[in-house]
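I am still getting used to backbone structure tokens and would like to learn alongside you. To get us started, please write out a protein record for me. Start from the sequence, derive the backbone structure tokens from it, and show both lines together. Once you have written the record down, we can walk along the chain together:
***
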Amino acid sequence: MTIVKAGLIQMSLKGDAERDTPEQIRDKMLAAHIPLIEQAGKAGVQVLSFQEVFTQPYFCPSQDKKWYRAAEKIPDGYTVKLMQEYAKKYNMVLVVPIYEEDLTGIYYNTAAVIDADGKYLGKYRKTHIPHVGPGFYEKFFFKPGFSDWPVFNTAYVKLGVYICYDRHFPEGWRALALKGAEYVVNPSATVAGLSQYLWKLEQPASAVANGYYVGAINRPGVEKPWNIGKFYGSSYICNPRGELLVTASEDKDELVIADMDMDMVQQVRDTWQFFRDRRPETYPLLTSIG
């Protein structure tokens, strides 16, 4: 049995989104995360993931150019460099979702992946960008990514990343599976209401359809001044059978940890044989319309 210990951190907003600068909020969010990162490291967590744009509020209810200043370079920006130090200190793979500045005026919703030795492995840029009101004006802030579904060969597991709204699109889940992912994390920022009942439905279903583990991370709390609703936390890890191994609370900062039996990935795929029975030659309609 090959066990990989996975952890997720969910965190409510620290600081004041009206008065603080993006840099001040970043520093407060990092200060709040570091004790939980250290707790995870001391508990033997091998793969640790944070929520979507984890150093900032979910600022997309606004269309305020102030938040462009929240973007950082990857891998040479402050946050990724700092997380490389913690990855190396605890021999822990880190998934670090932040607002990325590529070129001047070009920004992405991105997750950097850092290996257990502190080496930067690469990044995934959110592919599907919502723009629905009120509250989710993401196209004002993010350019759609075109990352070609990277799967990162980390020290412990073949790791994929999908980000928030991406989870509603089955194509990316399957692409990550076909490229060898054994564990896929989905850092999110989602509020109670229309999508909450889907939270524990879609991602376990995707885990089953693709035969891998899924880590789903959502922030808790209400973020002022926008007050678009309650971010309901409930971060969890599920196995390739769709069973939830651990679930966080709806309303508090929390680290959750689960042991993933990686042998189950092969066992489930051998049982269901979804990849053998695929018929891609019959699917041209999927890419020819739209």
Observations:
- The chain is about 25% helix and 25% strand.
- The domain at 3-274 is CATH 3.60.110.10 (Nitrilase/N-carbamoyl-D-aminoacid amidohydrolase).
